[in-house]
Task: structure prediction
Amino acid sequence: MAAVTYYIVGLVGYASKGLKSAGWALNPDVIVGISIPIVALMVALGIRRIHQGLAPKPGGISSD
Result:
């Protein structure tokens, strides 16, 4: 989870630096700081959804 969050936040940082260079009035450091908890929550929810999809269903085929 940490690696995916780190990668996505890095992309957000590059994008915000590019926007700043294009003339947008923003602070890339603040954008990155704000994005960390948002991205971490989205990654955690995505991983949870994947785990739920992989979990055996009740009444499904058993391996016995």
Remarks:
- Helices lie at 2-21, 28-54.
- Residues 2-54 form one domain.
